[in-house]
Amino acid sequence: MSRGPEEVPCLLMRGGTSKGAYFLAEDLPADPAERDGLLLRIMGSPDDRQIDGLGGAHPLTSKVAVISPSSDPKADVDYLFLQVVVDRPEVSDRQNCGNILAGVGPFAVERGLVEPGDERTSVRIRMVNTGDYATATFPTPGGRVDYTGDAEISGVPGTAAAVVIEFPPSAKPLLPTGNVRDVIDGVEVTCVDNGMPTVLIPATALNVTGYENPRDLEEDLALADRLRDIRLAAGPLMGLGDVSAATVPKLTLLAAPRDGGAVTTRTFIPVRCHTSIGVLGAASVAAGLQVEGSVADGLTRLIGENGQGDRIRIEHPTGFLDIESSLDGGTSGPPSARRTAVVRTARKIFDGIVFPRSAETAPIPAQPSGGHR
Question: What residue stretch is flagged as signal peptide (predicted)?
Fold first, then answer.
C-alpha cells in the first residue's frame, strides 16, 4: 500500500533521560525549511501542551534525530539532532544531544543501516551538529537489538540494556575562552566544552544553594535575569557568536556533593532547569572539575578519592550520572580531554507511521539560525 506525502515513517524512542522521534533523512524533506515545518507539525509545536503531536510538552521530550548513512570513513552513520521548541515555531540545530544519541546505534540497526553482530554491535556515529564522533556499543544477540538488561540510570524507571558511548578526544580546545576562569557579569565562571559548550558557576555566587528543586529555580525571576545575562555574554567569549536565539551554552550551577558523588549540579537548558543532566553537558562538567584552578575548586570530591579511578559521579536533581573522564596536559600546556565515556540506556517505544497535522493550520517556522541545516 502506498503512503501519502503526509505519512512519515517514525520510530519513537527513549534515549537516556530524553524522548524523541527518530527519522531516516530520506523520509524527510531535503530542504531545511520544509523539514522544520513538517517537524513542527509532527511534534505539535507551537503549543504549551503539544496536544496535537508527538511532543511531551517539555524540551526533554520534544527532540528529533535525523539519521543517514555516512560518507565519512570514520563513521557508519550521520546523526543530526534537532530541538523542536515547545511553545514557539522554532527548530534548532545549534547543539548536540547525548541522551538522544543513545538511541542512534539501535535505530541504525533497526533500519538496516548497520549490519548487527551476533552478540554485540558497535556503531560509529558522526554528530553532524558539531562534527564530533562517538561510538555506541549495545547488545544484539542473534542479530537483533535487545533493549532489556540490568543497567539502571537515574531519571528512568526500571532497567534496560546498557548502551556504552565512547567519545574520542576532540580537536577543539577544552577551554574555549583560553582561560581557566573568566569574570562575566561580576561572577567568576569556567567555560568548558567537552562535547557541549557549558558555563560552570558556583551556585552561591548567584545567591542560591544549588540544592533547590528545579521548579523553584525556574520561578526565581532574579536568577533567570542573571543567568540570561551570563549566557548572552559567554556566547561570544566561547566563540559561539550571538546566542540570543540558541540553546547553548548550557549553564550549570555547582555545589558540594551530598550523596557520595563528585559535585551537585543544576543545569539550565537554557531557561528550563534540567530535571537531571544531559550526557554531553555532564561530560563537560566532569572535564571542568579536573581543570586545576577552575571555579569547581573547593566544591568537589576529586578523582581517586573514592577509589573509582577516572569515574566521576555527577549528582543532579533526580539522582546521578557516572562519567569516565580523564585529561591530558594542564602543566606545560592547556588541558585537553583524553578519555570520555558514559553508560546510557535506550528503549524502542513504537515504530510506525506518524500523521502530521494539516499544513493549512500550522504556523510558519522561524528562519534557520545557522549551523548544519
Answer: none
